[in-house]
Structures are given as C-alpha cells and as structure tokens.
Amino acid sequence: MTNSTTDRLACVLILLTLCSTAQADSTFELSHNGSGRATGYAEANKIVTHNGKTHVAWLDSNEQGFEVKVRTLDHASGKWSPAYSVGPARDNHGGPDLVVDGEGYLHVVYYPHSDPMRYRKSVRPNDASEWTTEVEFGDRLTYPTMVIGPDDTLYLTARYRGSAQQPWETQLFTKAPNGPWVKQATIIRAGERSYSHFQDSLAWGPDHQTLHLSARLYGDTPRWAYLLGYMKSTDFGKTWQRSDGSSIPLPAVTKTLDPIEVVDPQQRPQHANSSSLRGSAIAVDDHNQPYVLYNTLQPDGTLPRQAWIATPDDEHAWKKTSLNDKIDALPKGWGLGMPGGMVFGEEGQMYLVLTAADDVKQSSLWGTRTSEVIWAQSNDGGRTFTSRMVSNRDAATPHWLPNIEKPTGFNQQPGFPSILYLSGERGSNNNAKLQNRVMLWNRGGLW
C-alpha cells in the first residue's frame, strides 16, 4: 500500500469520526401550536423513555382553548407518531406531568390552575395513543410534581391555593395501583395568607424509597424575604427530616425547613417579572446525595443572575458552587439560571439544562427575547463542565422553559437525557392562544 493510499485512508477515518460526532445532536419540532408555557413547568417531568420508545408531553393552544398532547418516538425506526390528545387544560398553567410504571403503563396528570387535578392512564403499556377515562382529585391545585414508587404507587405534590384566611400549601397525594387518589398530608405551609409559588421538586434516592424535596418559600417576616429549603423522607413520605436526619414536624414552614439559601428582602429587584431567588431542581446521585439547582442575583442584589448548585457536606452545611464562570457557552455579561433542570447519568455524569439571557438589558429571564437554552455536562462532580447552546440564538425569539427527562421511578435514562423547550412568546396573559414551536433536543441522536 502506497503512502498516498495510506494517507487517504487515514483522512477517510478522520472524516468518518468527525461526521459521527456531528450527527450526535438532534433537534425535532414536536408542534407549532405550543401555548405560552407549552413546556413549563420544569419541576414536572414531560419526557419518558421506556423499552425502545420515548414519549413527550406538552401543552398546545388552539381556538377552543388548551390541549395536552403526546408524541412517541420509536427508536428502531426513528419515526415519530402523530400528536395524540390527552385532555384539555384550564389555561397555560395546566400542562402535563408524565411517568411510566413498572409494567410500562404511562400515567399523566394535568389541567388545573387552582382547580381539581385530572389524571389518566394509558390503555396499553408503552403506548400513548389511547387513555383511560379521566379522573379528578383534590381541589384548588396547580403545579404537579409526580414520581412512582417500587410497587407502582404514584406520589404527587401540588400547590394548594389557600383562601384569604388560609395560607397556601404544598400537599402530598398518593395513588396505589387500582386505588383512588388520596391526600396524605400538607407537607409545606406558607407563612402568609397571600400568593405563594413553592416550586417544589421531587426526586428518588437510589434506594427507591427515600424522597428528596426542595422548595422555595416567601418569607413571612418580612414578606419579600426568600428561603430555598430542603427536606427528605425515608419512609415514602410518611415522615420528613432535614439532611442531618433531624425531624421536621408537618407541615414544614420557613423556620423548620433545612435552609439552603436565604435572600434578604432588600435584594428584591424592582424590575418587572424578576425574582431574587428562583429554584428549584433537585437531583440525587448514587450515594443518595441531593443536589439542588437554583439562581440568585449578585450579592448586592443586582443583575446578572447567578446559577448555583448546592449539596450538603459532611457536616450537613450546604456547600454552594457558582456556575456562571464554569459554563463556557454563556455569553459574556449574560445571566444564568432557572427555569432549568439537573439529572445524573448511569456513570455519575451530571447533566444540566439552564436558561440564559441578557437580563441586564431586559431585566428578566422569564421569556424575554434574548432567552436561550444551555446544556452542560460534568464528569467530575461539578468541578468542570462542557457546555453548549442548545437553541439557535435568535434575538427576536425567546427560547426558554427547558425541561429535562428525570428519573421518576421506572423510565430508562438514555445515554444523554433529552431536553424539551419552547421557541416563542409567553403571551400577554394566561389565556393567550399562541402558535409557538415546541422543540426536543438530544445530544445522543435518538432520532
């Protein structure tokens, strides 16, 4: 074989390697009728991978109102199903939370914005084309976060909207196989009788018995202080404790939660649609160690926003890692934060999805025109990251509300978890009918 032939073969091998790498990223448009919060909220799982299929749920809008949709990718053929309808939602807050049980049946909750929750189960395993009769449970609920236990019991937290005389709450519901939905407890209660958004996020420990939960509370004295807190249950939600094992009487309140971050009310920004503390995504590694992802403002209360990961150390104090300087894909001077998500891979890799925006210019990460979606991966416990911008940067179109597939009990985490996000406007109000693009991205090239 001549040197020139050898050189040509070497070049071909290099090109094949580069091409296989270039083919790794895949982006697919699921819908062009997405509502203003089609892929929100990040605490609710919307992607399920199971036995060679990936099911993705979101919230469309049309002239009649709002509709929960699901599409399924068959990995073997690389083909997507049509968009199947699950049921209506009250407004753009009523998007789905999707999980799969040990037998492969899909379970979905959806609909409310301070209403009863609605629930359906797939008629056949690993098949989103047909669903059982809709069931309602609870009252005055919003923002479901659902996981499934080893015996296929469903565990769900949701915000309860209190009255003028009653503080708002996070309530815990369960549903045993073939049983009804049952309210088990009020697990968190706000300190004041007015608006609260707890942003509670649930995750299993590796024993599939320990529930880890993070939540944001507004302060009660004074009102606009913020607390990001943590609690866990080692007995399937019956009792709760701090990271050091000390008991938390239910319902937990600002003073009894394990505090991760506290923000002084003087740091509350004056900008519209801004928050000095936004969380929370929680993930748990193979050692049953919780990690919480959130964002704050700078120490002096100014923009840009800063993203953080917190995890308890050996003394049960929360060790915090700032992310802005570690994420190379973040444009200089931009803010980084939530909505976002975090999961761990089978070999301990940490996967993040975050929202980036020029919030110094636009004073918000909430659907502003400069919003973009960033993916990051760490193979050394968060010390260093590789990152990239998932969305195609476009100053005229927000790319935001990212949602990453989370381990909810029986879904099978692929090599790289998929990311769902919204390309389009938030709308002028909760009932705005929009035609946004709903996008799915995967670095592993599932399709």
Automatic annotation (TrEMBL):
SUPFAM superfamilies per the UniProt record, alphabetical: Sialidases
InterPro entries: Glyco_hydro_beta-prop_sf, Sialidase_sf
Annotated keywords: Signal
Cleavable signal peptide: 1-24
Listed name of the protein: BNR repeat-containing protein
Natural source organism: Aeoliella straminimaris
